[in-house]
Specification:
It catalyses: 4-aminobutanoate + 2-oxoglutarate = succinate semialdehyde + L-glutamate. It comes from Diploscapter pachys. The chain is of the alpha/beta class. The protein contains eleven helices and ten strands. 24% of the residues are buried.
């Protein structure tokens, strides 16, 4: 679940290995609240707060970090985020949120793409002067390819690559960037192998076509951005073969391959990063890990179940047009599954 650092000793990745012992970790669920201190916060909470203070200041608040980073900034990144970095990737940059991360990933892709165009050289005087007037070559005509049903954020730039719900995009101007088909598989997967392989190939062919179309328009695709699972868009999945094919297309065309793991990163899919399941040649039922979903005949029926289940003590959520998604906690045992199924069965009988 947590590469190079187990769940029970995650704090040792942040601080020193001797600062906490495994014996202090709870091994069973409490029957109810238990107060063991005379005041809140208690001593352990105060200790944790003190340890987290340096992390908060240097990596979360990040005041004037671009010019005056703390002297321990690089070391703290390596000791924390470094221990869960995706395979083959060493560099880490912290951002305020998912939208900020995606915006800066796209900007980095544009800068890299233009640097390759210039043969590795920095911008010259013409680039620097023309960009202030939003003219070429300093302001290049480039694009980012995204997918139908994807969600990458609500900032101005990311709304162009977000295609999950109209309410996110209405009344907001957008770039003329390409959008390709994302797989919509037929389930059960093991009974529809050939049909789903055809769907993968159709989607990959659509990506190739869109890249050529935008190149012909003089607006080359500099980056492809994709989610391992389209969570907001309806819990739609792509096969490892689809994503490997997508990466190969990007590599062949000199395009940056951006994997948006804002929702799938962190262990919920059975690995810390969902793209680890793809067996990519190089770094970057219906369900994966604790990510799971089902479709309902209508959005109204889905919404009715969401409300009914909540009243019965089961929290589930809607996604896409008519999808119902489940997001259990990372600590989720068979007894929790049985409770969830009992509540789900009860709720289904009431709608």
């Amino acid at each position: 679940m947590f590469p190079r650092c187990g769940l029970v000793n995650r704090l040792s990745c942040f601080f020193s290995p001797s600062s906490r012992s495994i014996s202090s970790i709870a091994t069973s669920e409490p029957s109810g609240p238990s107060m063991r201190t005379t005041s809140v916060p208690g001593q352990n909470s105060k200790w944790l707060k003190a340890k987290m203070e340096a992390l908060h200041v240097s990596q979360i608040s990040r005041p004037a970090l671009a010019l005056f980073p703390r002297s321990d900034f690089v070391d703290s990144l390596e000791r924390t985020f470094g221990c869960v970095a995706p395979k083959g990737m060493k560099a880490v940059q912290t951002m305020a949120d998912g939208s900020s991360a995606n915006e800066n990933a796209i900007k980095a892709a544009f800068i890299w793409y233009m640097t390759q165009r210039r043969g590795g050289n920095p911008p010259d005087a013409e680039h620097l002067s023309s960009c202030m007037k939003h003219r070429q070559p300093g302001t290049p005509k480039l694009s980012v390819l995204s997918f139908d049903g994807g969600f990458h954020g609500r900032t101005l730039g990311l709304l162009t690559v977000t295609r999950s719900k109209p309410i996110h995009k209405v009344d907001v101007p957008a770039f003329d960037w390409p959008v390709a088909k994302f797989p919509r598989y037929k389930y059960p997967l093991d009974q529809n192998t050939k049909q789903n392989e055809t769907i993968d190939n159709e989607c990959l062919d659509d990506v190739k076509q869109k890249i050529e179309e935008w190149k012909a328009k003089g607006e080359e695709v500099a980056a492809i951005i994709v989610e391992p699972i389209q969570a907001e868009g309806g819990d739609h999945y792509g096969s490892p073969a689809f994503f490997r094919g997508l990466q190969q297309i990007a590599k062949k065309n000199g395009i940056v391959f951006i994997v948006d793991e804002v929702q799938t990163g962190g262990g919920a899919t059975g690995d810390y990063w969902a793209h680890s399941h793809w067996n990519l040649p190089f770094p970057p039922g219906r369900g994966l890990g604790t990510f799971a979903a089902v479709d309902f005949p209508t959005p109204e029926l889905r919404d009715k179940l969401v409300a009914t289940a909540a009243n019965n003590g089961l929290l589930v959520g809607g996604c896409g047009d008519n999808g119902l998604r489940f997001r259990p906690a990372l600590i989720f045992e068979k007894k929790h599954l049985e409770i969830a199924f009992d509540l789900l069965d009860k709720s289904l009988k009431q709608i």
